[in-house]
Amino acid sequence: MGSIDTNRRSGRLSYSLLDARLTLVQHDGLASRLAEGRPSFGVAHSLNVVGKARATSRLTATARYRVAAGRPVTPVVDAVAAPEGDFFYPVDGTPGSETLPTYARLDLGLSYSVPLGRAGSLVVYGAADNVLNRANAIGYDYSPDYSERQLDVSPYRRSIYVGATLLLVSR
Asked: Would you say 99 and 129 are in contact if contact means Cβ atoms under 8 Å apart?
């Protein structure tokens, strides 16, 4: 959508709008049929803001913020007991008729470049993903008989990592 670029700072802003409908398989207990609905990849709105700043010729800071409307999901509205065992078959609602909560995360990073003369350079970096430690939803978990539903959140909340990359120049 847009970008900024100077000698010391750069950035970009992007927005995505999607309105998609597909013919999907809808489970109806022991049977299946086709139904039109929103696909699970059909996130309606997504905004990304990315920034990068060189504090010095060797030190760079980065930031990325992403927010998106929740992903469409197909709810299970009922269940049918299986004739051959002690389990249940789900009865799906309208495909993509419900939406997970809004997804959001902020990632930050720093990198420091150490020149190694004509041999190359060493880049030392550190980053923190999902700095705000937000529990983003990834779907729903259902009880074995589908009578209860619980929001399933990503086990990957805030993460911090450090590392180094050795860049060698071959001549």
From this structure: no
Query: In the structure encoding, which two tokens stand for residue 117, read together?
Result: 């003369």
Mean pLDDT over each residue of the chain, to the nearest integer: 92
Residue position matching structure tokens 């139904």: 35
Instruction: Give strand ranges (E) for the chain.
Output: 2-5, 9-17, 22-28, 31-37, 45-54, 59-68, 72-73, 76-81, 88-92, 98-99, 103-115, 120-129, 137-142, 149-153, 159-168
148 Cβ contact list (under 8 Å, min separation 6): 142
Query: Which amino acid is it at 2?
Result: G
Residues 29 and 83: their CA atoms lie apart, in Å, by 11
d(CA 5, CA 170): 31
3-state secondary structure of 119: helix
Give me the residue label for tokens 């389990």.
Answer: 87
Task: Report pLDDT digits (tens) over 153-164.
Answer: 999 899 999 999
**Cβ(92)–Cβ(74) below 8 Å:** yes
Instruction: Give percent of the chain with pLDDT exceeding 90.
Output: 74
H or E segment at 35?
Answer: strand 31-37
